[in-house]
Amino acid sequence: EKAAQGSRGYHAWAHARATDDFAGYAPVLEKNLELARREAAYLGFGSAPYDCMLDKHDPGLTASAVDRLFGELKRELVPLVREITASPAAARAVTIAEKLRGFPLDGQRAFLREVTEAIGFDYSRGRIDVSLHPFCSGTGSDVRMTTRYKEHQPLDALFSSIHETGHGLYEQGLPAAHLGTALGIHAGMAVHESQSRLWENQVARSRGFWRCFEPRWRELFPAQTAGVDPGELYLAVNAVEPTVIRVDADEVTYNLHIVLRFELEKQLFAGALAVRDLPAAWRSASGELLGLEPASDREGVLQDVHWSDGSFGYFPSYCLGNMIAAQLWYRVLVLRPAIEEDFARGDFSWLLGWLRENVHAHGRRFSAMELVRRVTGDTLSPRSLVRYLRERYGALYRE
Prior knowledge:
mainly alpha, three-stranded mixed β-sheet, 3 strands, 62% helix, 4% strand
């Protein structure tokens, strides 16, 4: 029944989004919530159905744990976003990014293939193709990744490809001999997202990374990059501009999009928010967190596909992944302080080897929380993420 409803729900969502018709979609969402509660009861979570949804994606995770982590993050992140976006450098970064136009797709394909191979993806065990929205699926012996190309937004394909490559590297690093057992599968979606976000953000937005790859980028696109100097390019790579659309968000504001969805999901499952009141609640939360309200439900509550097939509890994995990535990153810097010099030489082998040994090799031996504690020596916290964002963007936007 749930599978059939998920199929119907997807098509209902696609139609509602195209026509900006939340009212027509609301009954589908109500049915999905009913089925989610029934599923939770069957699995022994009758008194805590939202914990069941979280547990499906990250075993052992609870709403109270996420609430504590996200509450602390929100207190720090909302004023930080205001501080960064008020900087004159913020507008300059957006202006520079808008100069990057007219990048031939063949050149983009060649460049991202070179980059993803350099950071360690094994194309003899996987491939990358094109889809409407980037994704990664498969197993370590057959990883299928996709990306999308935009002639006037060349950084979009690059960073989405590096993101999916991070997922692929994790799958390729899982113990192949244990495929099909708990030791041969990932530790949960938060850890999976930590791998994609670490490569996409801490690595690919670093100065060391661009010292390595910028010459090749300019070689492939001489006319398109002629009007942008290296300092401007680095600012554009790290542009911060709030948006109401989650998938278009920069790494600073992205986490607030996830906090918004978590808080609404939690209210839905607690019965504190009715489905019919979701659009208004979404607009209010968006205004509070991002300083922006969507102009339509298409840009608000209808923008994501996840709820259409009942994938509640998935959104928190994205933000938890960012927290884990930052905590792993600071452990890496303790062990190898000059790692960006490795990147500048095009050498990513130490980092990949460390992740393989400390994260990938364990499969699902440990929960996400336990794995983080074992690898970093500390419990999971938003402190490292806030520190990372302050150090990278605070410094950059004061220049």
